[in-house]
């Protein structure tokens, strides 16, 4: 066995058949065996990922189709192969139609056919992983670009989304939800619909000052505007729906990931808007008072969060770091506004300031607020 061998999990309730599978495959694959579906699920929980899971159909307590359906739910990346006899054909076809398996093999299965099938399954796994990595790197770059645009165009909205991201990152390890990137991206882009809303309107809204009816309409519509923008981006469809329902419960029957993501986002934005973070109060009590319908698991995940403690300082451009917040408007020496007070600095913004300084178009130092890392309450 070498470190590069694909990992295969073989499942059968008959020890002799498992031993035969192991002898057939062990030279080319890293083979793990399990006596039945329950043992296999325990192995997957401890030792995943596996490239391929091969299961016999006829097993007591949990047949192969039911077991592979569980694998699809818990470890969807694993390519699933079902070994079945002629009498089990109806169930095998049903499993194929439900998407639980990649391929089925009729027993007794010739060794060469089994090998060809596993080669195809491993190739599919690796192709899927390569495509996922490509999409994720593309999405990461896209999300970073959108947040940079938000930071430059609407720093107040960007500051709010940054607080939401900090809360979500704190909660996700406790929630243990699948696809955590969906919820973090939704928090990052939750305020992208604020681009185009006048800065003074956003500031007055944040300060709870009166707005005109048209201004209130602009604020109320920004989640829908963001959702329409994000829905056009492949793989961000659920993110778009979470962002859309950040201010109101989604309709019944909504996808569970969207439902819980919207609840989490609405909770953290509610906390931020009510200045409930970083002021020594108990987040659990505040959440229960402000948002009593919030599920207990979300309340528990946020209960020990405290917002970042801030520190005022005067800094030179060379000292600036991403995440620091401007405490003054920054102008060029000719009087052009570069960045507004409240802008949370990003790599792009810092680079722009350095370029202006290099051209002698910027005066130092700059008043900023530095954020310490979020911490748990004592």
From TrEMBL:
Has UniProt tagged this entry with the keyword Nuclease? no
Q: Sorted alphabetically, which CDD domains does this protein's record hold?
A: REC_HupR-like (cd17569)
Query: Mind telling me which InterPro entries this protein's record contains?
Result: Bact_response_regulator, CheY-like_superfamily, Sig_transdc_resp-reg_receiver
4-aspartylphosphate, modified sites: 56
Give any Pfam family that matches. Answer: Response_reg
Q: Where is the Response regulatory domain?
A: 7-122
Task: Give the keywords, sorted.
Answer: Phosphoprotein
One GO term under biological process is: phosphorelay signal transduction system
According to UniProt, the name of this protein is: Response regulator
The organism's lineage is: Bacteria, Pseudomonadati, Pseudomonadota, Gammaproteobacteria, Lysobacterales
């Amino acid at each position: 066995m070498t470190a590069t061998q694909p990992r295969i999990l073989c499942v059968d309730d008959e020890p002799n058949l498992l031993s035969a599978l192991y002898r057939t495959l062990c030279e080319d694959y890293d083979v793990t065996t399990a006596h039945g579906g329950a043992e296999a699920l325990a192995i997957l929980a401890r030792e995943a990922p596996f490239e391929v899971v091969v299961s016999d159909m006829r097993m007591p307590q949990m047949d192969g189709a039911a077991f592979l359906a569980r694998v699809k739910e818990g470890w969807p990346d694993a390519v699933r192969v079902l070994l079945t006899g002629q009498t089990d054909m109806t169930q095998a076809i049903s499993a194929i139609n439900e998407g639980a398996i990649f391929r089925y093999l009729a027993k007794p299965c010739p060794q060469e056919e089994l090998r060809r099938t596993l080669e195809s399954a491993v190739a599919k796994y690796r192709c899927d992983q390569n495509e996922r990595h490509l999409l994720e790197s593309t999405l990461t770059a896209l999300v970073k670009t959108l947040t940079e645009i938000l930071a430059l165009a609407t720093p107040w909205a960007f500051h709010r989304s940054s607080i939401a991201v900090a809360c979500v990152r704190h909660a996700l390890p406790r929630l243990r939800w699948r696809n955590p990137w969906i919820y973090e991206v939704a928090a990052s882009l939750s305020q992208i619909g604020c681009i185009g809303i006048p800065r003074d309107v956003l500031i007055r809204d944040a300060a709870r000052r009166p707005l005109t009816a048209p201004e209130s309409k602009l604020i109320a519509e920004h989640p829908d505007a963001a959702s329409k923008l994000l829905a056009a981006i492949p793989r961000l469809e659920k993110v778009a729906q979470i962002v859309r329902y950040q201010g109101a419960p989604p309709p019944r029957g909504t996808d569970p990931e969207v439902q819980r993501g919207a609840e989490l986002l609405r909770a953290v934005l509610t906390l931020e808007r009510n200045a409930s973070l970083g002021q020594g109060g108990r987040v659990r009590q505040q959440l229960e008072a402000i948002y009593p319908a919030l599920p207990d698991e979300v309340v528990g995940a946020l209960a020990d969060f405290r917002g970042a403690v801030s520190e005022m300082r005067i800094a030179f451009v060379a000292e600036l770091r991403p995440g620091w917040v401007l405490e003054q408007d920054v102008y060029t020496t000719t009087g052009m506004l570069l960045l507004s007070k409240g802008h949370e600095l990003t790599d792009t913004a810092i680079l722009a300031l350095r370029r202006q300084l290099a051209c002698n178009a910027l005066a130092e130092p700059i008043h900023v607020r530095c954020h310490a890392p979020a911490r748990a309450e004592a």
